[in-house]
Automatic annotation (TrEMBL), chain A:
Keyword Transferase in annotation: no
The name this protein goes by in its record: (2Fe-2S)-binding protein
Keyword Ribonucleoprotein among UniProt keywords: no
The organism of origin for this protein: Pseudohalocynthiibacter aestuariivivens
Keywords: 2Fe-2S, Iron, Iron-sulfur, Metal-binding, Oxidoreductase
UniProt xrefs under SUPFAM superfamilies: 2Fe-2S ferredoxin-like, CO dehydrogenase ISP C-domain like
Gene3D superfamilies (UniProt xref): 3.10.20.30, [2Fe-2S]-binding domain (1.10.150.120)
All residue ranges annotated as the 2Fe-2S ferredoxin-type domain in the record: 4-80
TrEMBL record, chain B:
InterPro entries in UniProt: CO_DH_flav_C, CO_DH_flav_C_dom_sf, Diverse_Substr_Oxidored, FAD-bd_PCMH, FAD-bd_PCMH-like_sf, FAD-bd_PCMH_sub1, FAD-bd_PCMH_sub2, Mopterin_DH_FAD-bd
SMART domains, per database record: CO_deh_flav_C
Protein name from the UniProt record: FAD binding domain-containing protein
FAD-binding PCMH-type domain location: 1-177
UniProtKB/TrEMBL annotation, chain C:
Organism in which the protein naturally occurs: Pseudohalocynthiibacter aestuariivivens
Region (Disordered): 1-20
InterPro entries according to UniProt: Ald_Oxase/Xan_DH_a/b (IPR000674), Ald_Oxase/Xan_DH_a/b_sf (IPR036856), Ald_Oxase/xanthine_DH-like (IPR016208), AldOxase/xan_DH_MoCoBD1 (IPR008274), AldOxase/xan_DH_MoCoBD2 (IPR046867), AldOxase/xan_DH_Mopterin-bd_sf (IPR037165), CO_Mo_DH_lsu (IPR012780)
SMART domains: Ald_Xan_dh_C
Top EC class for this record: oxidoreductase
SUPFAM superfamilies assigned: CO dehydrogenase molybdoprotein N-domain-like (SSF54665), Molybdenum cofactor-binding domain (SSF56003)
Annotated Pfam families: Ald_Xan_dh_C, MoCoBD_1, MoCoBD_2
Keywords: Molybdenum, Oxidoreductase
Entry's Gene Ontology molecular function annotations: carbon-monoxide oxygenase activity
Enzyme nomenclature, EC number: 1.2.5.3
Every Aldehyde oxidase/xanthine dehydrogenase a/b hammerhead domain range: 32-141
Classification of source organism: Bacteria, Pseudomonadati, Pseudomonadota, Alphaproteobacteria, Rhodobacterales
Protein name: Aerobic carbon-monoxide dehydrogenase large subunit
Transmembrane segments: none
Length: 163, 284, 806
């Protein structure tokens, strides 16, 4: 079966490639575009390690065909900050020990990034509910929740200072 | 978990989508959010030769409340259902239920049309739609027809929707009735062990209308006419609720799975239906 | 000296050594998506390998037809047992002295077993080709119950062992029997139990589960035919052992094999074993001359690659009328699946199950473990635990609860009455261990006070009364656990894996400008070794942790070590680091003395420098000494500043802890809610409190999963019922409670810095705490024991069996 011409905007860069429609978005990113931040954990859309942002939504890219993503704007962990720098959330995860093996971390932070766009000042309950699509085997979530809440207050403080 | 090959189609309007379905018959499947279908394809448990992705069909994304009727396009996502203020007002039951479906990422892409059309008895929306007495609009080669949600489901994954039809939208009456969606599950992302959708209208101290539907307790969603009838005309006292619960359970036929054996599910169903009724009553 | 001279405290703080909650150096790359895990590795011309797996749990393989698969464009080869046989690689030795099929040789013995290995240009072609391999099976009777496996007329599972009445661990008394392993004094224990005032008896099942790290197992093998060098990147918790095994199996000399463990996305014991995928990727690379990647998917992982637990533990515990324990007996029927691939030290086929006397002074005990074959996946790995310690801790902590019921006694009081006292350490246990140090009573009292134990019991009895009056349908459970771990395997005299003694190692090089690199034989899977080992060294050698690079996992550069599992990194490699640091310091002392023009014995160590005794203003910092070691000829001293230490610990370490879980249970639905969880851990000297706390949170959450729902379940014909993360329970942030952590600090007397290890304690202690909370909630209604996992329907069933549903 024929390959199709795909156009994606990934982390601000236009990408064009040929792919079989059945190729999964996570594979296109990891294998063809060398964007290896998003990981493959469960392959059935339960773990969230492959989470990225597609057209402003948090999406599990193991359950998206490349063909469906044609024309989409995609942001992965690599696109959240300038290469070699860490944004507020990334720093907060480091500061509050919100990661251990690091495998869930890119999906976790990418999801948290969207969550804080939608709920800038969340309660702990909102964070736990909003992060429930991402599994972590190492941290028990307590420090992940702490990191996100800390990042939220830092972002809010910065916003207030700017106003 | 790698899917087999397929031909991909992305029609721009319903008519083209229908003609693709017509052309390819049972080799074709409609792709909405894909979070039920794609895992099945990755496990190679669903063989699909032609995948008809309906994401570009703008008309399927519309939802509006006009007068007493709520219209929701098939491609409206659960995330949008949760965040749509006018919908939350016209049918707060939808929001309460949507928050209990899957997880945040899945809700961004999971659509109401996909959820109801798939015919999976474990999906939450079908029971909800039966509770709301929704009507599904189906487009096929010979035009549009409507089917009541309460008549749509035949058995697991078998519905009144023909191979060459697309479910395009859903309509149901706006409601101010007391509502509740009560769901027991093992964890976020799991299907219901048992779930119940309840709407109750009280006229003074007497129940004037009641609708009770359940999820994952049979090979189709279960709308229990008898359970609703058991409440109507009563003051919803303890014995009346017990009668409604008994009637509801009588309409279920759960099967054993890793959530537990039949005996357990039936018992939990009774508890969940009762709690849903009590919560709906508290809001009626 | 002037005002600008930093104080001792300031100099010490600058090092970020022991006790400092140093931020992790690993995090910059992980938070930016720049980790390098196995599946991130991409080599030119790399091929993909994957398995045709058996849909049956027990079947004869009649034929395998690979023609259609080979005809598919992009398919390079399909390997079967026949292809591996000439290389003698169709079977491989297991870590437990058994052997395991690499590819199905005549029959399959568990669902998901590897039957053929397809090599193709990419994953997609590979998956299509797998569908085209035609395998003809003849189904055989399936055994998934270890007790049925031992019935006289049970079907023979391991035909390859026909007639072998002796296995790696002694006599096999039945064709499906693997070993009987015994510890303690059987007769004396029976005598004590038979004449005791009170005896409690119970069958305690610790169900089969799986470590399920978020990253599955995988490897990339690359045979460089020009140089004759094989490089394998893989998810290896013990890379050096893999190198030795690979050399022994392949015949390639060990110096021509390089094993690299890159970043590992969680291990929890899953990545200790050697799996057919590793072997096949290596063979495939040798055959094709190209790099070959194998990465399993989640179903493969849960179905085929290791399992944990599956111990049926039948116990008897005896006591005097007033609750002094007099004896303990335990017989285990251990379901090992199709091959005995347990990852235990060679002499311990049931791991350290004989730590099952727990925290208690039990004068006499006996343990017997029967290992049995069934049609389930092989494995038996230590899932966040030191070789069956979780099973042991669960067993004793359940037996204590059952004994408390038998005695009509409060379970907290019963524990306190029987703890090994502080003055009894070092303590010789009835089953042969020497506990190094402990102060159980202090920890226990602190824990009970912290949760307000008396008030909780009062609230609980009020709740029971309210329930009986029909005012509530919710019960309150108070789950207690006091556990003692045994970690840090181990003394080489007792512990080896495939003949390799379980020492560990550290090599340090100090650079001229006062920074350093240290390499160790371990490998982090999230524990933060690059952060904490640098802290140990910082305190030993006086260079800032931030100036010390830690490297692990590359066998071409790291010294030989036995790897990371069983909480052995801190007790063994951490000790090696300290000892290597001390060697550096000893040499530095000579250099400093020379530079300061005094005798070696006239200088003394002070945080980051050697100073002249009595004249602290005369000193040389470690950075100055490092520079001097490279640019000054010191008589009698070799240039440079390097050291290596291979550390063979004199004993294991024995971390312990006191946990309390307060749980609400809905009797009608089986739904639970954890209201409070308090965890006090004593892991000896604390290296990095932030990391310790993180380890405790994570281990408790794994314990929560195991106790409350996580299992590998089979149906009667051996189908795995829990093959995806829909059914295999891993809690999300929503189901996970908030934990309160606490500590006491009782250093290990034999460890160079007194550290004991902590990574596995919360799993070992957490499971009994959660499970005991469930049991405790129903104690007033007559429950003695109910098997885990306590998922909703099983909790509901407890209530239902007790007649609580009216």
């Amino acid at each position: 079966m024929s390959k199709m011409h795909l156009k994606l905007k990934v982390n601000g860069e236009e990408k064009e490639l040929l792919a079989e429609p059945r190729e999964l978005l996570i594979h296109v990113l990891r294998e063809r575009l060398d964007i290896t931040g998003p990981h493959i954990g469960c392959e059935t859309s339960h773990c969230g390690a492959c989470t990225l942002e597609m057209n402003g939504k948090s999406v599990k890219s193991c359950t998206v065909f490349a063909a469906q993503a044609n024309g989409a704007e995609i942001t992965t962990i690599e696109g959240l900050a300038e290469p070699g720098t860490m944004n507020v959330l990334q720093n907060a995860f480091r500061e509050h020990h919100g990661l251990q093996c690091g495998f869930c971390t890119p999906g976790m932070i990418t999801r948290a990034h969207r969550l804080l766009q939608e709920i800038p000042n969340p309660t702990e309950e909102e964070v736990r509910h909003g992060m429930a699509g991402n599994l972590c085997r190492c941290t028990g979530y307590q420090n992940i929740v702490k990191s996100i809440l800390a990042a939220a207050s830092e972002m809010n403080a910065a916003k207030e200072a700017a106003e | 978990m790698i899917p087999a090959m397929f031909e991909y189609h992305r029609p721009a309007d319903v008519k083209s989508a229908v003609s693709l379905l017509q052309e390819h018959g049972d080799e074709a499947r409609v792709l909405a959010g894909g979070h039920s279908l794609i895992p099945m394809m990755k496990l190679r448990m669903a063989a699909v030769e032609h995948l008809v992705d309906i994401q570009d069909i703008e008309e399927l994304r519309e939802s509006k409340v006009s007068g007493d009727t709520v219209h929701i396009g098939a491609m409206v996502t659960q995330h949008e259902l949760i965040n749509n203020a006018s919908l939350a007002k016209a049918a707060p039951l939808i929001r309460e239920a949507s928050l209990q479906i899957a997880d945040p990422q899945v809700r961004y892409v999971g659509t109401i049309g996909g959820n109801v059309a798939n015919g999976d008895p474990a999906n939450d929306m079908p029971g909800l739609m039966q509770c709301l007495d929704a009507t599904y609009a189906l487009s096929g080669p010979s035009g549009e027809r409507t089917v009541k949600a309460r008549e749509f489901y035949e058995s697991a994954f078998m519905t009144a929707c023909e191979d060459d039809e697309i479910l395009t939208s859903i309509a149901f009456p706006a409601t101010t009735a007391g509502f509740a969606y009560e769901k027991q599950k093992r964890k976020i992302g799991d299907y219901a062990t048992a779930a119940a959708a309840v709407l109750i209208t009280m006229g003074g101290k007497t129940c004037t209308a009641a609708s009770i539907a359940m999820t994952n307790l049979s090979d189709t969603p279960v709308w229990s006419e008898a359970a609703g009838a058991a409440l109507v005309g009563t003051n919803c006292g303890d014995a009346d609720i017990a009668a409604a619960v008994a009637a509801a359970l009588n309409d279920t036929d759960p099967t054993e799975d890793s959530r537990g054996p039949v005996e357990f599910k039936r018992h939990v169903a009774g508890v969940i239906v009762r709690r849903a009724i009590e919560r709906a009553l508290s809001r009626a | 000296m002037n005002d600008l001279t930093p104080t001792s405290e300031e100099r010490s703080a600058k090092l970020k050594g022991l006790g400092h909650s140093r931020k992790r150096v690993e995090d910059a790359r992980f938070t930016q998506g720049k980790g390098n895990y196995v599946d991130d590795i991409k080599l030119p011309g790399m091929l993909f390998g994957d398995f045709v797996r058996s849909p049956y749990a027990h079947a004869r393989v009649k034929s395998i037809n690979v023609e259609a698969a080979l005809a598919l464009p992009g398919v390079i080869a399909v390997l079967t047992a026949k292809d591996l046989e000439p290389l003698n690689l169709h079977w491989m030795p297991t870590l437990a002295g058994d052997k395991q099929m690499v590819l199905a040789d005549g029959k399959v013995l568990f669902q998901g077993q590897e039957v053929a290995f397809v090599i193709a240009e990419d994953r997609y072609i590979n998956a299509d080709a797998i569908d085209l391999v035609e395998v003809e099976y003849e189904e055989l009777p399936v055994i998934t119950d270890p007790f049925k496996a031992m019935e006289p007329d049970a079907v023979v599972l391991r035909e390859d062992l026909a007639g072998q009445t002796t296995g790696a661990h002694g006599e096999r008394r039945h064709h499906n029997h693997i070993f009987l392993w015994e510890s303690g004094d059987k007769e004396a224990t029976e005598d004590v139990i038979n004449s005791a005032d009170v005896v409690a008896e119970e069958m305690v099942y610790y169900h089969r589960t799986h470590p399920c790290p978020l990253e599955t197992c995988g490897s990339v093998a690359s045979m460089d035919k020009v140089n004759g060098k094989l490089t394998v990147w893989g998810t290896f918790q013990a890379p050096h052992v893999v190198r030795t095994v690979a050399s022994l199996l392949s015949g390639i000399e060990e110096h021509n094999i390089r094993i690299v463990s890159p970043d590992i996305g969680g291990g929890f014991g899953n990545k200790v074993g050697v799996y057919p995928g590793y072997v096949c990727s290596i063979v495939a690379s040798i055959v094709t001359g190209k790099p070959v990647k194998w990465v399993e998917d989640r179903m493969d992982n849960l179905m085929a690659t290791a399992f944990a637990r599956d111990y049926w533990m039948k116990g008897k515990i005896s006591a005097t009328k007033d609750g002094k324990i007099t004896g303990l007996q335990c017989h285990v029927t251990a379901d090992h699946g199709a091959f005995d691939a347990c990852a235990d030290p060679t002499k311990f086929p049931a791991g350290f199950m004989n730590i099952c006397t727990g925290s208690y002074d039990i004068p006499v005990a006996y343990l017997g473990v029967d290992g049995v074959y069934t049609n389930k996946a092989p494995g038996g790995v230590a899932y966040r635990c030191s070789f069956r310690v979780t099973e042991a801790a669960y067993f004793i902590e359940r037996m204590i609860e059952v004994l408390a019921i038998e005695l009509g006694m409060d379970a907290a009081e019963l524990r306190a009455k029987n703890f090994i006292r502080k003055d009894q350490f070092p303590y010789q246990s009835a089953l042969g261990w020497e506990y190094d140090s402990g102060d159980y009573h202090t920890a226990w009292t602190k824990a009970l006070n912290a949760v307000g134990y008396k008030d909780l019991r009062k609230e609980q009895s009020e709740r029971v009364a309210a329930f009986n009056r029909g005012e509530t349908r919710s019960l309150l459970g108070i789950g207690l656990c006091h556990f003692t771990e045994i970690v840090g395997a181990g003394p080489v005299k007792n512990c080896d894996i495939l003949g390799m003694g379980m020492f560990d190692s550290c090599e340090i090089r100090i650079h001229p400008t006062g920074s350093a690199i240290a390499r160790l034989g371990t490998i982090s899977q999230g524990q933060g070794h690059a952060t904490t080992f640098a802290q140990i060294l910082a305190s030993e050698i006086g260079l800032p942790a931030d100036s010390i690079t830690i490297e692990e996992g590359d066998t071409d550069t790291a010294p030989y070590g036995l790897g990371t599992y069983g909480s052995r990194s801190t007790p063994v490699a951490g000790a090696a680091a300290a000892m290597a640091g001390r060697k550096i310091r000893a040499k530095a002392q000579m250099i400093a003395a020379y530079l300061l023009e005094v005798h070696d014995n006239d200088v003394e160590w002070d945080i980051d420098r050697f100073a002249v005794k009595g004249a602290p203003e005369k000193f040389k910092t470690m950075a100055e000494i490092a520079y001097a070691s490279y640019n000054q000829a010191v008589p009698g001293v070799e240039p440079g500043l390097e050291a290596v230490s291979y550390y063979d610990p004199p004993n294991m370490t024995y971390p312990f802890g006191a946990y309390v879980c307060v749980m609400e249970i809905d009797v009608d639905t089986g739904v639970h809610e954890i209201r409070q969880f308090y965890a006090l851990d004593d892991c000896g000297t604390r290296i990095n409190p932030m990391i310790i706390e993180g380890q405790v949170h994570g281990g408790l959450t794994e314990a929560l999963a195991i106790a409350m729902g996580q299992e590998i379940a089979y149906d009667e014909i051996g189908n795995v019922k829990t093959g995806t993360l829909m059914d295999f329970f891993i809690p999300t942030a929503w189901e996970t409670p908030h934990y309160t952590t606490d500590f006491t600090e009782t250093p290990s007397p034999h460890h160079p810095i007194g550290a004991k290890g902590v990574g596995e304690s919360p799993n070992v202690g957490g499971v009994p705490a959660f499970s005991n909370a469930v049991h405790d909630a129903f104690r007033a209604f007559g429950l003695r024991h109910a098997h885990m996992p306590h998922d909703q329907w099983r909790i509901w069933k407890i209530a239902n069996d007790l007649g609580m549903h009216g």
